Input
Amino acid sequence: MDGTVDGSWAVTGLDPLAGQVLEHLVAVPSADVTEIAGAVGVSSAEAERALRILADSSLVLRIDGTSPRWAAGPPRPSLGAVLARRRAELARAEGLLERLHEVYEEVSGPRAAHLVEVLEREDEVSARYGQLLKGSSAEVLHLAKPPYVTGPETSAGEFAVAHGVRMRSVYDTDGFTDVLSLDTALRGSGQGGELRLGSRLPVKLVVFDRAAALLPVRGDRPAAGSLVVHSPALVVALVALFESVWERAEPVSLETRHDGPVWKRGLTAVEPDRRTREILHLMATGMKDETIARVLKVSRRTVQKHVSDAGTLLGARTRFQIALLAQERGWLSERA
Output
């Protein structure tokens, strides 16, 4: 019989080894300690200890004779009784949790309100953010803009979303020159996160699993404190705000490609390569050449070369004209 994952037995309260022994015994009429130890790959002493645990829970029976043997009882009634006891224990634990939360609310007052938490210190904000991030299981929505509470001394690997959690981030172009924000965006993109850039983001915001949202009390002074919003109606409104910003923001690819400008000639028009499209895309959001170079991991001169060649092809002299004409030509679209 295939072994059951140890974690499944842990949920029942049984020792993982005892679970393996039970799996073996339900597959055979009976077995002695030596046979059991050999089947699960442990010593006879360890097998005997597991058998005592199973016998105490009425999951196995000892058959006395010249050489004592062991047999499993019917799993459904015997293991069902074990699970029933575990459910009762969990119910008592849930009752304890509720009592503790009631005491917490009485002591903490408005900080532990059902709808909004007030975090007054930077370390509280950082700790609560990490807690909410680790507790996210489906999706994290992120609007990032300066000024930032987290300083350059914070480790870039301190916070990360769990595997399988979708993260969508929109960074304000005015703040994307910050090394920490760039490193964070690169790391998130490398983990499968989706990144976009936008100008004049309305607020700094993080939404966790569409169940809680973190935002500063004052947009211009994030160090003044933050709010953790739990109100379903407010969270829905903040999600709608994020989706509106996300829809207008420009997608960004941080993949590294060749640096030289290449122009693809079609039957009726000359079009830029993907790298030039990326540079024009970022330029159109208001990003500076230095920041574009950092994002795409190319030199500033390479960026300027692409922009200059695009201007020559479009017959434009200023960056504004280049962006406008590139948009009209469809060069800022998603196609390669």
